[in-house]
Design a protein that fits this description.
- Two copies of one chain form a homodimer.
- In chain A, strands 8, 9, 10, 11, 12, 13, 14, 15 and 16 form a nine-stranded mixed β-sheet that branches. In chain A, strands 2-1-7-6-4-5 form a six-stranded antiparallel β-sheet.
- Chain A has two domains: about 100 residues, D-amino Acid Aminotransferase, Chain A, domain 1, CATH 3.30.470.10; about 150 residues, D-amino Acid Aminotransferase, subunit A, domain 2 (D-amino Acid Aminotransferase, Chain A, domain 2, Alpha-Beta Barrel).
- The first copy, chain A, has eight helices and 16 strands.
- The first copy, chain A, is an alpha+beta fold.
């Protein structure tokens, strides 16, 4: 683990990342020591910094650090945190130098059946708050995710689906959600809440390439229930089909989900 | 500065306080080495921990640490941070031991005229998101406060007022807001957003004792404009009258504001 390039697992307790969650993070898959989809992650991180007016990190240096962190790992996870750093007067973020943290985490062994037979999901009680200024960002203010994930302990449930106050299905606690209806993909536009995942972008691009239309549309209760196929995705799990949403419905692991899973394997 | 009782200014970069803003904080005034309104702060902190299902700290030990931190200081600020600690699986908060951080900060010299002549405030563009599960808590997810405070740089403006999506006036970026109309106090109930400040509680209690009725009611645009008096409060500034809200109106520093300022001085 490195903090501002130095090998250490400690940061200043005055860092605004701790004090205010004033920062962003990225979680990347590492294969044979190399971060996957690096450019996409860095575009998101840089754009996130711009939106929060944090000076964006030097992407080349960051790549060197991630490679150094994860050297020799067959499969692992790299986590990058960028905070606004120390200083400012209270909330007022004046004259700060960002902190960057890079870390290599062991690959979490996900059950193979999750991607093959599909998962069981539940619908969370917590409703995501609408904040367009933060929507889409992978920022460090993640209490909603923590509270949503704490809603269940049953290991048979692999993910919780999150709705906004209007009842629109936005995402999973750690993933993005897609529904398939009549051969078309739908996912929330994430203009009010949610995290715009890198795998979500990739899924949309792969669908496009295969002539599958993908729409950024809100997903309401009837649309979820009547979907032909349902899946979640993120940079680590790729695609997990949803075979059951508790109290909502059962879904087949259908041909489009399989096609997209296959497409991701070969990129 | 102490982290889990040890004198250090560094914490683990794996702490959930940094990773997710998974924690709470308190900011207390220190007078002659003693924290002010200790019990009220500890009630709020303990209740906040209960709501987030974080094991509440040992309040007696915390008091010892704050006293040790701030020993001999005529006036200073104590900051206490409680996080859920390290561990868990991703967002899932299993088997964690909370981290507690205590820190003594020099007293910020506020301009005397702020409390005497009153301040100029502005209305922030950012609208506070509605999240009843977090409303009232002084949690570490403070990106909204950071973005709101970054909206202006003019030193003549001492505070920014924050509205929710319905246009209700909730609070200031670092304070609570009261309006006075026809001899009665009004402040938002903070059921959807905002931080329930200790000085807000004290103001309400002092008003009550003096036979001034105080209502927890939403404050809309006309009510703000037509208020007889307006003030903000927090544990460090006590009460600052608002003499002007830019583009909204000018307000006298009226008798009830003065009475409450006086009342706080003698508790």
């Amino acid at each position: 683990m490195r903090v501002n390039g130095e090998i250490t697992d400690r940061i200043s307790a005055l860092d605004r990342g701790l004090l205010y969650g004033d920062g962003l993070f990225e979680t990347l898959a590492i294969v044979e020591g190399e971060p996957q989809h690096w450019s996409r992650h860095m575009v998101r991180l840089t754009q996130g910094c711009q939106r929060l007016k944090i000076t964006a990190p030097d992407v080349e240096k960051l790549l060197d650090e991630v490679r150094a962190c994860c050297a020799g790992k067959t499969s692992a996870v790299a986590k990058i945190i960028i905070t606004r750093g120390q200083g400012g007067r209270g909330y007022n973020p004046v004259d700060t130098t960002p902190t960057h943290i890079t870390q290599c985490i062991p690959w979490p062994e996900f059950p193979l059946e999750n991607s093959e037979q599909g998962i069981v999901a539940r619908v969370c009680d917590l409703r995501l708050a609408s904040q367009p200024l933060l929507a889409g960002l992978k920022h460090l203010n993640r209490l909603e995710s923590v509270l949503a994930r704490a809603e269940w302990t049953d290991h048979a449930i692999a993910e919780g689906l999150l709705r906004d106050n209007q009842g629109h299905y936005i995402e999973g606690t750690m993933s993005n959600l897609f529904i398939i209806k009549s051969g078309q993909l739908f996912t929330d536009p994430l203009q009010q809440c949610g995290v715009a995942g890198i795998m979500r972008d990739i899924v949309m691009a792969l669908a496009e390439q295969r002539g599958i239309r993908c729409f950024l549309r809100t997903i309401d209760e009837p649309q979820l229930k009547e979907a032909d196929e349902l899946f979640i995705c993120n940079s680590l799990i790729n695609i997990w089909p949803i075979r059951c949403v508790i109290d909502r419905g059962e879904y087949p692991v259908g041909p489009l989900t399989r096609q997209l899973q296959q497409a991701i394997k070969v990129i």
